[in-house]
Amino acid sequence: MLLRSIAPLGLLLLGSIGVVTTDVPRAIACIAFDWDGDTETFGDDGYDGSDGRNGEDGRSGPNREIVADGTETVLDLSGSDGEDGEDGEDGDRARSCRQPRKTEYNVRGAPGGDGGDGGRGGDGGDGGDLTIYYSDRADLNKIYVVAEGGRGGSGGRGGDGARGCDCRERDWDVEICETVEGRSERRCFDREFRCWDGDDGDDGRRGTNGRSGDLGQLTLVPGGEPLPEDRPSATISLSQFGDRPVSLSRHRWETQFGATSLLAPGSKIADEYREYIDTIAGDFSLRWNDPRAIARYGDIPVALNLVEAGKVEATVPESIWIAAAVSQENQTTIWTIDRILREQEATQLKVSEFAGSRQDLRLSAIDSAAKSDILTTDFAIVYRSTKFGDRLGTRSNYDVRYQGEIPPELVELDYNRFTLNLGKLPIDDRYLMSGVGVDIEIEVTRSLGDRSAKQTLIWQGTIR
Fold first, then answer.
1. E strands of 345-410, at which residues?
2. Helices (H) and strands (E) in the chain, counts
3. pLDDT below 50 — which residues of the chain?
4. What distance in Å separates the CA atoms of residue 3 and residue 94, rounded to the nearest whole number?
5. What does the pLDDT read at residue 23?
6. DSSP conformation letters of 268-286
7. Is 372 helix (H, G, I), strand (E, B) or coil?
């Protein structure tokens, strides 16, 4: 206890803001005292106000297509205004704010509730777009159009924060008495306690205003007739290709400025407009030369894209490997598929045999996917071995005897079986003998066209 520890010195220190010296058993000093750990709250917190509802966005104006024939025409394609956001609710005042009296601890009033945030204003709707088909450009001046965007709604007002509980009595003294250890007397002193008002709630934030809508845009098509729908791209599975080519087309447009100068005076529409130039077209035809049936790969999607007049670009997913030739006959792009496989089919090699010794040491691997006739296959090896008679163990027990590519002349292919003649690699004969422990790591690289994948084969054991 603080009082006992300093009593023999005749000095009483409380906190860091008051000092009293005394030699009498009863201290009569009153000192300020403020320890957060001795503070309790009275009253109930006020409830926060609810946030205001966001305003609804305005509707966009209708899009219209008309033919200019010299008739005076009035069009209202304006978007509607966005709704205002609702105001946030005010917070509630703290409740049950009766301050307890003469407590032996500090007290603080409960805080008031925060005000709710105002709702966001709704965005204004965009003006509608107008497409005009015309034969005589002068007829455009007979068309009056208003395609303004709607105004954005105003953000709602934030609610007011409410008051917390207030103190009725700011400070008071309480006599504290304690028995001095080892003595029969009691020592008493006055301690001052305080009350702080509860915090007022924060005011809610005002909601943001909505964005005003954009002006509608003008599109002009010379000729006086609507354009047929174009098809600049398509995705078709292999099984859907038939004898007839797939036809693609793309309308070409030119961007210009000065839309309002073409229409009736006072028209309101975006200044930038586009005008039709022409339509380009191209056909795509698929020829299947792979010996496997197309139905085996029928689910594979082919993405077609018309890149210029008469030329179509075809792509397949990265997981599909294709060896194909592209040719052009007039307006038709011809895609001839010679070989095709899925990427996972390229990495299906498995070690099937490890046999022989010295110059006849060989390792065989089987291609379980049976794609070795269409893939380019390269091998690289890390050949590790123990010394003769050493036991097999972890890789740290082995030393590298050769690392590098296996020359193509040391690789034999019989249908889907690869035989690697390891005994003809430049490896000291001592490490090719029967009884030597080996750890072999073979990296296989398989390629078709510009696609490739790697697979690692591991074999560990003793040369027989």
1. 349-355, 362-367, 376-385, 399-405
2. 2, 27
3. 1-37
4. 39
5. 38
6. BS-SEEEEEEEEEEEEEEE
7. coil
With tokens 């709250």, the residue in question is 41
Dihedral sign, Cα of residue 161, residue 165, residue 167, residue 168: positive
Residue 275 burial class via C-beta count within 10 angstroms: exposed 0-12, middle 13-18, buried 19 and up? middle
Domain 347-462 CATH class label: mainly beta
Burial class (CB in 10 A: 0-12, 13-18, 19+), 459: middle
Q: How far is CA 442 from the centre of its chain?
A: 38
User: Looking up tokens 């105001």, which residue turns up?
Assistant: 87
Asked if residue 282 lies in contact with residue 309, where contact means CB atoms within 8 angstroms, the answer is yes
Cα 403 vs. chain centroid, distance in angstroms? Answer: 43
Q: What is the pLDDT of residues 185-209, one digit of tens each?
A: 788 888 999 999 999 999 999 999 9
The 10s digit of each residue's pLDDT in 235-249 is 999 989 888 899 999
pTM score, two decimals? 0.63
CA-based max dimension of the chain: 120
Percentage with pLDDT > 70 across the chain: 90
- Cβ 187 vs Cβ 180: under 8 Å: yes
Domain with CATH 2.60.40 in the chain: 347-462
Tell me phi and psi for residue 410, to 5 degrees. -95, 10
